[in-house]
Design a protein that fits this description.
By secondary structure, the protein is of the alpha+beta class. It is 29% helix and 35% strand. It is built from eleven helices and 21 strands. The protein has helices at 2-30, 54-68, 73-78, 85-90, 120-125, 153-167, 249-261, 306-310, 381-388, 390-400, 430-441; strands at 48-52, 98-105, 108-116, 133-137, 141-147, 183-187, 195-205, 208-217, 226-231, 240-244, 269-284, 287-300, 321-322, 327-330, 333-341, 344-348, 355-360, 363-368, 376-377, 402-412, 415-424. It has a 19-stranded mixed β-sheet that branches. Strands 9-17 form a two-stranded antiparallel sheet. The chain crosses the membrane at residues 7-29. Keywords: Membrane, Transmembrane, Transmembrane helix.
């Protein structure tokens, strides 16, 4: 019996290799490599464009899988080629470049995708969900644009004309959006946004994703270095750290709304440092509460005295405050708060936070252990159920294989330069681990 099992396992792996050799041959000989990106079909004023060099991504994945990965029976079965009827009905060539874009017009937003067409008839017949979904094609290209259900007739007309214009445009050599990476992101921005003319490239090699990009800061966003208090990083606990020199307007609006519900008015946040250790699932007043385990420094643009503010807290929440010990208790989670300087406060789990004043250049960063975000504390049924949900469980397993995560953006003159690396553990390959994660989620 053991002998037959080994033969079966060998057959699975052999069929897997043969199947992928056929795919490699198909991709190499039927898909011509193009130096000009489909993103050059888009008008230059589109807000955001992401192009995925699907052909090169497939090549990288197959090379890693066939020549560098240690393929076992389980992995082979996961990647055995299967024909998806839904994909074949789409009439699009998903082995060619895929371009995704986001745009705003007349206070209405639109999300779209540009595809190479393999069968125009199938593409036209394919049913797309959504009342305000625009579909336009010719024999070469197809465009799908998704609008809000409440989009006006003027908006529908505008984006219908845009779709027609895109498919009938000609590619531009060395155009503004032409990609140099496996994935390229171009963000237009304007004088009212913090950053504009951003171009970001993402590449994958062996176990590492590398990120590199550059954008231009608007004039009033350029700032000099300043002294700030920084939390020292823990040495015995996993964390994921986010640092920002400028809090985006949407995030600031969310913070302000959250504080306002508590009866607290806060000035604009200048910057912050956030250490996340996970979340606690607890009960508060008979309802489930998801409480972040964190240490957090907030820096305001104006003086802010937290002791004075919490005294004016909404009466419904005053029972949560231990004013003498400067502590907020929600369920079993205790948050300490502290005034650090005239415009800096600390909120978090640590009773005596360890921080140091440092001269800091304006920058953004995300670093540490991303799996820490999915560390879930809680003993009840709900906490156990959430831990076992496939998206949570599989995401945590994937993130636990990430051994290095560091992305940072630093101000250089009037520009913001972005660099980053994300690596999986030694002996693993990023393309294979990402593909396994996606296939298990499907």
């Amino acid at each position: 019996m053991q002998k037959y099992k080994r033969v079966f396992s060998f057959s699975i792996v052999l069929l897997f290799l043969i199947g992928f050799w056929i795919i490699i041959g198909f991709v190499n000989f039927t898909t011509a490599k193009e130096s000009t990106s489909n993103s050059s079909l888009l008008p230059s004023d589109i807000d955001m464009v992401m192009s995925v060099n699907t052909q090169e991504l497939i090549h990288t994945f197959l090379f890693d899988l066939l020549f560098q990965a240690d393929i076992d029976e389980k992995t082979a079965q996961l990647f055995m080629p299967e024909e998806s009827q839904e994909i074949s009905k789409l009439g699009a060539d998903l082995s060619a470049e895929v371009v995704v874009f986001y745009d705003n017009w007349n206070n209405s937003s639109a999300k779209g995708v540009v595809l190479n067409i393999s069968n125009e008839g199938d593409f036209k017949r394919y049913q797309i969900d959504g009342e305000n979904t625009i579909k336009f094609s010719n024999s070469k290209y197809g465009v799908l644009i998704y609008l809000d259900d409440k989009a006006s007739s003027e908006t529908v007309t505008h984006y219908t004309q845009l779709a027609e214009k895109i498919v009938n445009s000609k590619k531009i050599e060395n155009g503004k959006f032409n990609s140099r990476g496996l994935i390229n992101l171009a963000y237009q921005g304007n004088d009212g946004t913090y950053l504009k003319a951003l171009n970001l490239d993402l590449n994958i090699k062996n176990q590492t994703i590398s990120i590199k990009g550059k954008g231009k800061l608007i004039d009033n966003a350029v700032s000099s270095s300043s002294k700030q208090n920084i939390l020292n990083l823990p040495t015995s606990q996993k964390y994921f750290q986010i640092q920002t020199s400028e809090v985006p307007e949407d995030a600031m609006n969310y913070l302000a709304t959250s504080f306002n519900k508590l009866g607290i008015e806060v000035p604009a946040v200048k910057s912050m440092q956030l250490l996340i250790y996970g979340v606690a699932i607890d009960e508060y007043k008979g309802s489930m509460a998801v409480l972040p385990n964190l240490d957090w420094i907030l820096r305001f643009k104006e003086p802010f005295q937290i002791d004075s503010v919490v005294k004016n807290l909404h009466p419904n929440y005053k029972s949560l405050i231990d004013f003498e010990n400067r502590r907020i208790t929600i369920g079993n989670v205790k948050y300490n708060y502290k005034q650090i300087s005239e415009n800096e406060i600390y909120i978090g789990l640590t009773e005596m936070p360890d921080y140091v004043e440092t001269e800091i250049k304006p920058y953004y960063s995300a670093s540490g252990y991303p799996s820490a975000v999915l560390e879930i504390d809680g003993q009840g049924f709900v906490a156990g159920f959430i831990k076992m949900m496939p998206p949570v469980k599989l995401s945590k397993q994937f993130l636990e294989d990430v051994s290095y995560f560091d992305i940072r953006a630093e101000q250089v003159g009037d520009s913001l330069e972005i660099k980053g690396e994300i690596s999986v553990k030694e002996g693993k390959l990023m393309t294979v681990e990402m593909a396994k994660y996606v296939m298990l989620l499907l």
